[in-house]
Design brief:
Length: about 375
């Protein structure tokens, strides 16, 4: 495939040792390839100390590339949250986006060791880790549709899926270009454009207001849409665990219940992100799921790869993300399992998928028939 590249230049002004630094970061997108970023360097002294960026090697650079000035980097927030209308670059997947509103989730990180002797003793007695959730901020965002074709580290452009509100109990529909982004994945920037993000919902949800910071404020339609769809959008729990430098993050969402031949069937979707935190190149080969239902059934699922792919995780492409769905004939259950990875020398190792609950404690009213406002 012939390479098709879009290169964007971000300029940032920062203070370092009482000297002003203009930092340039060139982003490249290659059709059928990964997005890459060259290491930002100071235009005055060639400093390469811009720490908020994940760097990737460049490749497939066609001649005649055109640089497009997009905006100015802002300092990432170490405390507090980003407001609705904040423009950002995703630090891992590289797309441009804009924040709609925040979610305050409970993060259950199994990599965090118990902090007290009692907690440590309890976890050792039960042969497992005691996990306590902590509040963590995520954001509902819109993805710029111009960047969607170049996000190769995901099985598809992210979308929020719903149960269709008609007789076909298995039918799903999706709102494309919606994503959930963790606070630390936000690289904020500003722009003078009145429509800096291309998405069909941008002008229906946000309006340009130069007297505000950021200069995009929520319309009443966004607040109404959030309230109407809250049960099906809400992000409440995030689960994370690392095995041999491969971190697995799982976010489950309840989708609703349907009657199938007088049997209640409950549906969930779950988003999984795989990250290679080390230097070794590995490839996902197999998945092994255990699905327990409150009705007493335990199902085992094995298969090659995930969603038809066997992604390679390397220093250049460290992450892969996908979404899938599960249904139970009970209002709650649990899922856990392993991913089998292969190293370059042919050896294999299993990576734990953190156990997570499937709960249907939301209002069981029918989800919306669409997102027409």
């Amino acid at each position: 495939m012939a390479a098709c590249a879009i290169r964007r230049l971000f300029l940032s002004v920062s203070k370092y040792k009482r000297r002003s630094h203009r930092v340039a970061s060139v982003l490249e997108y290659n059709c059928g390839s990964d997005w890459t970023r060259t290491r930002p360097s100071c235009l005055h002294c060639a400093s390469t100390s811009f720490q908020q960026t994940r760097f990737m090697s460049s490749r497939n650079r066609p001649n005649g590339n055109v640089l497009e000035t997009v905006g100015v980097f802002e300092a990432p927030k170490q405390h507090g949250k980003y407001e609705s209308g904040q423009l950002f670059l995703h630090s891992v997947f590289g797309y441009r986006g804009i924040v709609l509103f925040p979610w305050h989730a409970r993060l259950y990180d199994r990599d965090v060791c118990p902090t007290t002797l009692d907690s440590l003793k309890t976890s050792l007695d039960h042969g497992s880790k005691e996990v306590k959730g902590k509040t963590h901020t995520y954001y509902q965002v819109l993805i710029d549709t111009r960047d969607c074709p170049y996000i190769s580290q995901r099985s598809q452009t992210e979308a929020v899926t719903f149960l269709a509100n008609h007789d076909d109990s298995r039918a799903l529909y999706a709102i494309p270009g919606l994503d959930y982004v963790s606070h630390e994945d936000i690289l904020p920037y500003s722009s003078t454009e009145q429509i800096p993000i291309q998405h069909e919902l941008f002008e229906r949800f946000l309006i340009f207001n130069p007297s505000k910071t950021p200069p995009f404020t929520s319309r009443d339609t966004l607040r109404a849409w959030q309230e109407k769809n809250h049960p099906w959008l809400e992000l409440s729990d995030v689960h994370r665990e690392t095995t041999e430098n491969i971190r697995v993050t799982v976010i489950p969402f309840y989708m609703g219940m349907r009657d199938v031949q007088n049997i209640h069937v409950y549906w969930w979707r779950y988003c999984i992100r795989l990250e290679n935190l080390g230097n070794e190149v590995v490839q996902l080969r197999e998945r092994h799921w255990r699905i327990f239902s409150l009705s007493g059934t335990l199902e085992t699922v094995r298969g090659r790869g995930v969603v038809g792919r066997e992604p390679v995780l390397s220093k250049e492409q460290p992450a892969f993300q996908y979404s899938s769905h599960v249904s139970l004939q009970a209002p709650s259950g649990h899922m856990w399992g392993t991913f089998r990875f292969e190293r370059t020398d042919g050896s294999h190792f299993d990576v734990r998928i953190p156990p997570f609950s499937l709960e249907s404690n939301k209002d069981d009213k029918a989800p919306p028939a669409g997102y027409t406002l």
